[in-house]
Amino acid sequence: MSSTSATQPGDEAGTEAAAPAAVLGGGGGLPRGVLILFGCAMAVITVAGIRAVHGIAGPAFLAVVLAIAAAPVRTLLADRGVPRWIGTTLSILVVYVGIVLLAGGMLLAAAKFATLVPEYQAQFAELVAQAGDLLRDLGVDSAQIQAILASFDLSRVVSVVTLVLSGTVSVATNLVFIVTLVLFVCLDAGSFGQYLESLRGEHSEFVEALSSFSRLTRTYLIVSTAFGLVVALIDTGLLYALGIPGALLWGLLAFITNYIPNIGFVLGLVPPAILGLLEGGPGLMLIVIVAYSAINVIIQSVIQPKLVGDAVGLSASITFLSLVVWAWILGPVGAVLAVPLTLLVRCIFVDVDPAARWFGGLIGTASSVPAATAPTADGSAGPGSEDVAGEAASAEPRP
Asked: 306-346 pLDDT, tens per residue?
């Protein structure tokens, strides 16, 4: 008999199936550096695509985050025996009220600033004249002084500030799209949770990653809201004590801009600082800037990023970088949703893959997704199923 055994069909199939793996990264395949460059190129193409449709992608993700934030309302009511349609309706109403309050607050702040500043036209003219005298004393040529002073236009200042404030709610131009999408997302939330539970046996890692994303997103919103209330109360009291007009409104503005990580307080500082300049001169403006910065930098740029990072598993540096990157990709709404968007990226590329979870420690803390376990012999899901299962169980089956 020949010592060479015949090749079985199964062996050939196995060899063909293993070939792509060998080409992509196995022994004798492409070098790791080439694979990294290939991945970076794909990331650039993906980012360019998202940026090209930022007018749709930004509002769409905002609607998803708002639906995630309102999900506990439906779950709580379902646990108390309230019919599913009532819980869904109330969760939708909660989202709509939140949209109206946040967007309305920003627009009200812009409108109030636009009406207050023109009342200080005389004070502004006096400040400009004092600035001209100071430049003249410093030896600046009269023609240059005239050119510089001509650039100081109070109406231009008002238009710039109101444009910036209104830009943070530019997503309001897509309000119909957001409202409609929130409606459908909330209506589908119950059946979506049930479907995720049906996937737990075969795709448990994916289910756990999405569960972690929704849980951490709500944690981030709760922490940011709590810090926003604290900052708003302190800023309102400070501005009221200094005699700045519209102190309560600027406190509301500080609360809203607190959702922009790290630098949100700068947007809330501009109107009261300008009003301080017009109301009491450079001295009062300096007091407002120093006091505001001391309060907000300590709370919003030091304490809050640390606590938020610890709560959601992102380092302070990653939080700040995510603000810059997502603001560039999606515009103002990207700055507001920088942390939830980063959590989603981590969910897709890190948490869902047990072999990649070591990377979570490089961008914050180790992955918070528990190790998925297969269903037990009695058919129950393993540990870590409460988040998705809770919402799924609270949803009545559709007829």
From this structure: 787 777 878 778 888 888 899 899 888 888 888 899 888 88
In b/e form, how buried is each residue of 11-37, taking b as 16+ CB within 10 angstroms?
eeeeeeeeeeeeeeeeeeeeeeeeeee
Phi, psi of 364 (to 5 degrees): 170, -120
What is the spatial distance between Cα 231 and Cα 266, in angstroms, rounded to a whole number? 13
- Angle between helix 204-242 and helix 264-280 axes, rounded to 10 deg: 10
Task: Tell which phi-psi region holds residue 244, choosing left (phi > 0), alpha (psi between -120 and 50) or beta.
Answer: beta
In this structure, is the dihedral angle defined by the CA atoms of residues 215, 221, 224 and 226, taken in order, positive or negative? Answer: negative
Contacts of 330 (CB under 8 A, 6+ apart): 50, 51, 54, 57, 58, 61, 337, 341
DSSP state of 379: S
Is the whole-model pTM more than 0.90?
Answer: no
Longest Cα separation, the chain: 111
User: CA neighbours within 13 Å on the CB side: how many for 325?
Assistant: 17
- pLDDT tens digit string along 26-59? 445 678 788 888 888 888 998 899 888 888 888 8
Contact between 68 and 91 under an 8 Å Cβ cutoff? The reply is: no
All residues at 6 or more sequence positions from 303 whose CB lies less than 8 Å from its CB, including other chains: 227
Radius of gyration of the chain (CA): 28
Instruction: Give the integer Cα–Cα distance in Å for 362 and 398.
Output: 43
Q: What does DSSP assign to residue 246?
A: T
Contact 285, 273 (CB under 8 A): yes
Q: Identify any residues that bridge with 364 across adjacent strands, giving them in sequence order.
A: 314
Q: Are 265 and 250 in contact (CB under 8 A)?
A: no
Contacts of 7 (CB under 8 A, 6+ apart): none
**What's the rounded Cα separation, in Å, for the pair 65 and 337?**
8
The residue type found at 364 is G
- Residue among 332, 354, 336, 342 nearest 312 (CA): 342
Q: Is residue 102 within 8 Å of residue 255, measured between CB atoms?
A: no
